[in-house]
């Protein structure tokens, strides 16, 4: 009798459970929307607390991709956009316009000055890429402007020439309209291993490291060509240039002196990127006849391969404001030098500063 009652009870319970389950299924089915998706069991409050999915999961990664190409002033395009984006990720505030402008050159220079492993040049090169990648991967703190302030009060020399804000820039324009700060002394001056017509280790033997290494390569190539090049005058301090210009002005008059001698601050020699060269064929003098020698002709044809230009070329006096100087080499790097020399233009024209 107990077993019979138990069986009947079990049947009744089973029927009730089945009916309940069917009712629940019907309710759920009725609530499915037109998209075919079942409603969430979460409350409106819970829905509001859900984090929005990232529409582009690679966005953060892409924002800090390191440009592979070497970059410098006048470059444009996607690689420059990457570079500007990377620096903004690190705390800079660059306009991401795809143009390697003065602000971008400042950011690169500022970053380089904060690393003991880099030479400050304003050029995004292989060494800078390596250090930048390491800084990002290891969260190395970088403070924008701590190496080189971006915003400075306008400054002028005693003669009224505007002082440039980034004297480290390898492509800095230094002329009668753009001067170096009076207190600027390159921090990476070295003695290039080349011939000089004198033996004393004078300051004028020095150049900035990158320029000095390139000058050594240029001299080695000239040696292989059977030529005799000698370096004559490289780095020159602001004070030394002041003394030279004063002496030339007293002898020739200031206006005439300024056609072949720069006022203090306006001389490329202070940048450490310049070397005057000569040869025994002109008695080691710095004269225009050097351009007619085998050495002078070779320099005109080959200097760009090593990153140098003839800074004051013949026929460009109206632009440079200086006489023809075939002996005056300025280091700008291979990329810029090849373009300048192949087009027979000046640094002013290359940087598009001539109206």
UniProtKB/TrEMBL annotation:
UniProt xrefs under CDD domains: LD-carboxypeptidase (cd14852)
| D-alanyl-D-alanine carboxypeptidase-like core domain residues | 205-333
Family annotation (PROSITE patterns): PROKAR_LIPOPROTEIN
The secretion signal range is: 1-21
**Chain ranges passing through the membrane:** none
Instruction: Supply the alphabetized keyword list.
Output: Carboxypeptidase, Hydrolase, Protease, Signal
User: Could you tell me which residue ranges the Peptidoglycan binding-like domain spans?
Assistant: 77-132
Quick one: where's region Disordered? 34-60
Query: Which GO terms fall under molecular function for this chain's record?
Result: carboxypeptidase activity
According to UniProt, the name of this protein is D-alanyl-D-alanine carboxypeptidase family protein
Say which species the protein is native to.
Oceanobacillus longus
